[in-house]
Amino acid sequence: MWIGSMGMALIASILKRSREDSNVETVLWYPYDTGMFVSSSFDKTMKVWDTETLKPAEVFEFESNIYNHHLSPIARKHSLIAVGTKNPKIQLCDLKSGSKIHVLQGHKAEVLSVRWSPRYEHILATASADSKVKVWDVRRASGSLFSLDQDNGDKSKSSSEAVNTAHNGRVNGLSFTSDGLFLLTTGTDDRMRLWNSATGENTLVNYGKVCNESRKGLQFTVSQGCSPEFVFVPCGSSVAVYVLHTGELVTMLRGHYNNVDCCKFHPDHQELYSGGKDGNILAWVPVLRASDMEEESDQKNKVHNLLPRHDKRKTKK
């Protein structure tokens, strides 16, 4: 069970023109220094911001709308930002040089989501409106390592169907598990799939119908440090909570008054944050079940009973 609350104060804001074609789609902290963050927008720019001055330190310009960008959470040998745009080519931008240094070619439609592996710093996953998800080693110039195949290479399919598609619609969401061993994808076929990130095998976990009408990227998230692990997916004005490895729908978190745009899990506090078109950011925290509280009480009693006698007497006073 999770409950939500609003308890956040606005420290500063950056004004922009209120036009739909300049929507800010992604904002990410630089993983190693909160003095810098990166935003990308439908105005065809990606900006690197100085947190103290709230002014751009670097601006990358593109020829088409930007759907998503991502920075590696673990990279030490590179400082690349992967960028997915309306153009099928994935751009790799170097923070150190301030330039676009490489292009990954292979998709046939706009790239809606990009994610670096949290396990291997050179591994990148990309999702496209062409129904495909590709996994790349950015050190290689010969193309992607493999494309995810929802049928796991089923040879019984006719040649026209066996084209290694991850979904039967636009693939608009990607998320690695915290250990990087699995990759989750969402598509407009109302399906979510869990893949072995090393082999590309579809694990065939059945999450049922996962409503997804987004024409842009779907920003969902996976828990970290929970047992079992959960997946949090925007679903209309609610957030659907699934058990990662069984597909069970645990609950629907309701609190927003309009569609939920994104959600993010904070592993240090075991909290979920969700943002919606109602202009609210909600913080969701887990509530202990009665059985859990009884267990906690029993543990406290056991600890109390283990205290030396003189400590017990002091407690009574």
From TrEMBL:
Main subcellular localisation: nucleus
Pathway(s) this gene product operates in, as recorded in its UniProt entry: Protein modification; protein ubiquitination
WD repeats: 17-59, 104-139, 164-205, 253-284
Keyword Signal: no
Keyword Membrane: no
Function: Substrate-recognition component of the CSA complex, a DCX (DDB1-CUL4-X-box) E3 ubiquitin-protein ligase complex, involved in transcription-coupled nucleotide excision repair (TC-NER), a process during which RNA polymerase II-blocking lesions are rapidly removed from the transcribed strand of active genes. Following recruitment to lesion-stalled RNA polymerase II (Pol II), the CSA complex mediates ubiquitination of Pol II subunit POLR2A/RPB1 at 'Lys-1268', a critical TC-NER checkpoint, governing RNA Pol II stability and initiating DNA damage excision by TFIIH recruitment.
Stated name of the protein: DNA excision repair protein ERCC-8
Organism of provenance: Oryzias sinensis
